[in-house]
C-alpha cells in the first residue's frame, strides 16, 4: 500500500512549484528524484535509526521512502516539518490513511526545531536550501543531534550556491561526509 502511494507521488511534476509564505520565505517545492528515494531508503536500512527528523515534508514522498527503510517501526519516532498548512494537513491525512506513524509539524523549520525535545539519530534536510546551515546549527546547539547522528541533505549539487555555508561547515569541522552524484546531489554525513 505504501509502495502504491509512492508510485502516485512519483508521478508529481519534478519541475516543482514555487511558494512564498507569510514570513516572506520563498523557495521551490520539488519532490525528490526516484534515484534519491531508493538511496535514502537504503541508508535508513543501514543506519537503523530510532528517531528520524525530516525538514521539508511537502507531499510526503521522501518521508515514505525513509519509513520503508525502517527495520522495526514499533517505537520509532518520526517527525517531519512542513511550513505550508494545507500541504501539511493533506500529508498528515495521507500518513494517517496509510497507518504510517509520522507526525507532521506545521511551521517554519527554525521555530519547530525550537519546540522539539527528542534526540534524533537521522536527519534529512530538504527544505529551503539557504536555511540548511542555520537549521543544522540550531539542532546542534539544542543538542537534538550529536556525535553519531546521520545527516542527509538533498539538492547539494543542483542548488550548491544556496547550500554553500552548510557544505562549508562539514569541511571546516572535518566532519566525515560524501556527496552522492544523484540527479540533484545528496550529502551523506555522520557527525
In short:
The chain has 191 residues and is of the alpha/beta class.
Q: What does the overall shape look like?
A: globular
Largest sheet: 7 strands, mixed
Q: Give the beta-strand count.
A: 9
Helix run count:
7
Strand content: 15-25%
Number of domains: 1
Q: Low-confidence parts, pLDDT < 50 over ≥5 residues?
A: none
Which CATH C-level class is it? Alpha Beta
N to C succession of SSEs: HEEHEHEHEHEHEHEE
Widest beta sheet: strand line-up:
5-4-3-6-7-9-8
Mean pLDDT: 89
Structural class per helix/strand content? Answer: alpha/beta
CATH topology: Rossmann fold
CATH superfamily: Vaccinia Virus protein VP39
CATH architecture: 3-Layer(aba) Sandwich
Rg estimate, integer Å: 15 Å
- What is the percent of helical residues? 25-40%
In whole angstroms, the N-to-C terminal distance is 34 Å
Q: How would you describe this protein?
A:
With 191 residues, the protein is α/β, with parallel strands linked by helices. The protein contains 7 helices and 9 strands, in the order H-E-E-H-E-H-E-H-E-H-E-H-E-H-E-E. It has helices at residues 2-10, 34-47, 61-68, 85-97, 109-115, 132-141, 160-172; strands at 17-20, 26-29, 51-55, 77-82, 103-106, 122-125, 150-154, 177-180, 186-190. Strands 5-4-3-6-7-9-8 form a 7-stranded mixed beta sheet, with helices on one face. Strand 6 (122-125), helix 6 (132-141) and strand 7 form a beta-alpha-beta unit. The protein is globular. The model has no long low-confidence stretch (mean pLDDT 89).
Amino acid at each position: 500500500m505504501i509502495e502504491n502511494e509512492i508510485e502516485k507521488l512519483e508521478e508529481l511534476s519534478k519541475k516543482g512549484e514555487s511558494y512564498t509564505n507569510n514570513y516572506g520565505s520563498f523557495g521551490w517545492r520539488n519532490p525528490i528524484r526516484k534515484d534519491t528515494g531508493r538511496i535514502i531508503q537504503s541508508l535508513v536500512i543501514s543506519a537503523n535509526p530510532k528517531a528520524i527528523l525530516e525538514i521539508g515534508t511537502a507531499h510526503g514522498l521522501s518521508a515514505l521512502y525513509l519509513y520503508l527503510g525502517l527495520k522495526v517501526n514499533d517505537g520509532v519516532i518520526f517527525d517531519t516539518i512542513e511550513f505550508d498548512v494545507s500541504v501539511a494537513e493533506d500529508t498528515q491525512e495521507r500518513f494517517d490513511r496509510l497507518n504510517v506513524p509520522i507526525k507532521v509539524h506545521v511551521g517554519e523549520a527554525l521555530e519547530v526545531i525550537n519546540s522539539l525535545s527528542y534526540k534524533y539519530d537521522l536527519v534529512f534536510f530538504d527544505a529551503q536550501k539557504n536555511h540548511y546551515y542555520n537549521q543544522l546549527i540550531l539542532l546542534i546547539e539544542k543538542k537534538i543531534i550529536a556525535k553519531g547522528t546521520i545527516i542527509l541533505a538533498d539538492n547539494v549539487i543542483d542548488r550548491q550556491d544556496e547550500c554553500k555555508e552548510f557544505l562549508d561547515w562539514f569541511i571546516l569541522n572535518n566532519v566525515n561526509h560524501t556527496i552522492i552524484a544523484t540527479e540533484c546531489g545528496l550529502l551523506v554525513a555522520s557527525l
